[in-house]
Structure formats: C-alpha cells, structure tokens
C-alpha cells in the first residue's frame, strides 16, 4: 500500500511541474541552407593598403553591396581629375610658352560579381585598378625617370577570383612597387546580409 501511495504522490508531483522543467531543450536549429542559384545580398569590403617595409603608410576601405547569383556586376569609381601642365609655344616674334593643362583620372576602380558554389562558399570575381600621383619621400628623392616639375603616375591593375565564406577575409595580393619599394596589399572580406 505504501508503494502505491509513493508512486501516486510522485506522479502528482511530476504532473504539477512546469512544462519547461519536464522537457529537454530542443537543439538550436542551424541556419537554413539557401537554394542553389538563389540571389543572396552580400557586403564585400575591399581594403587597399600600402606598406613601406612593415610600416603601414595608408589603408583605404571600400564597401560594395553585391548580389550573388545575379547576372550583373557591381561597379565603383572613386577618384579625381588631376591637372597635368603642358606647354604650347606661340609662333611669331615672341617665343614665350603659354601654359595649358590636360587632365588625368586618378583613383580606384572596382568591379565585383559573386556566385554561390557549395557548402556556403562564394566565388567573387573582381577587377581592381588603382592609380595615384607619385609622391616623393621626405628625403626628396624622386622616381629615377621623373623630370623636375613633371608629375609621375603609378598604377596597379588586377583581375582575380576569391573563394570566401560568410565572415571570412582573404588577401588577394601583395605587390611591390619597383620604384618606391612600397608594398600594396588587397584584402577582401565577405559578409552575407540577413
């Protein structure tokens, strides 16, 4: 008789416990897998950095909104037009030159498209072009081919592919400028927009 009473009391106690105390916590569901070919919004950050030895001289970030599996590419153009002096001579008795200017575009151009591969990987197809006016260092040394008072321009262009997952950063390249010895690095970070 005592066993029956103990079992009845235990059963009554268990049924009065809150539902959450009797149930096991369900495992956290993983994020749903996206269908192949589904258009997915991405934020792609590209950082162009310049180093002199181990010292970082500059670091310029660019962020692009890219739609994966879209047939279009995202393009960004950022820069200025720099005046380049030219001399035009007058004909006649006075041969004093008259200055005129032409303009050259200086800055960064980026083109990017993306598509899904498998298991959360994205393939980024990118073209990066960076043009800058050559600046002499503090010691006053200029490029060996530079003429006094004439601006020099340096340029970097690269077309490349990267495989990245959400939140990953990859370094595409590290190229050394043959004139100044500066190293240019391009780092790309991909984030899926929820």
Question: Can you walk through the features of this model?
Answer:
By secondary structure, this protein is mostly beta strands. The chain has a domain at about 35-80 and about 105-190. About 10% of the residues lie in helices and about 55% in strands. The chain contains 2 helices and 8 strands. The chain has helices at about 1-15, 20, and strands spanning about 40-50, 55-70, 75-90, 95-115, 120-135, 155-165, 170-175, 185-190. The strands form 2 sheets. Strands 2-1-8-7 form a 4-stranded antiparallel beta sheet, with no helix packed on it. It has a 4-stranded antiparallel beta sheet with strand order 3-4-5-6, with no helix packed on it. β7 (about 170-175) and β8 form a beta hairpin. The longest helix has 15 residues, at about 1-15. It is elongated.
Task: Describe how the helices and strands are arranged.
Elements: H1 2-16, H2 19-22, E1 40-52, E2 55-68, E3 74-89, E4 97-116, E5 122-133, E6 153-164, E7 169-176, E8 183-192
Antiparallel strand pairs: 1-2, 1-8, 3-4, 4-5, 5-6, 7-8
Structural class computed from helices and strand pairing: mainly beta
Give the number of helices: 2
Largest sheet: 4 strands, antiparallel
Low-confidence stretches: 1-32, 138-142
Distance between the termini: 62 Å
- Overall pLDDT level: 78
Calculate Rg over CA atoms: 31 Å
The portion of residues forming beta strands comes to over 45%
């Amino acid at each position: 008789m005592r066993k029956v009473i103990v079992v009845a009391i235990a059963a009554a106690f268990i049924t009065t416990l809150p539902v959450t105390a009797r149930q096991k916590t369900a495992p956290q569901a993983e994020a749903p897998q996206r269908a192949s070919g589904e258009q997915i919004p991405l934020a792609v950050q590209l950082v162009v950095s310049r180093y002199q030895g181990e010292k970082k001289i500059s670091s310029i970030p660019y962020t692009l909104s890219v739609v994966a599996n879209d047939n279009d590419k995202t393009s960004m153009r950022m820069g200025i037009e720099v005046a380049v002096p030219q001399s035009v001579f007058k004909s006649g008795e006075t041969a004093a030159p008259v200055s005129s200017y032409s303009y050259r575009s200086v800055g960064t151009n980026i083109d990017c498209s993306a598509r899904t591969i498998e298991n959360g990987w994205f393939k980024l197809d990118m073209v990066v072009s960076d043009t800058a006016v050559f600046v002499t260092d503090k010691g006053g040394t200029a490029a060996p081919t530079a003429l006094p008072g004439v601006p020099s321009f340096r340029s970097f262009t690269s077309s490349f592919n990267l495989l990245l997952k959400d939140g990953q950063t990859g370094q595409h390249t590290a190229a050394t400028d043959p004139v100044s010895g500066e190293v240019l690095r391009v780092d790309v970070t991909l984030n899926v927009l929820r």
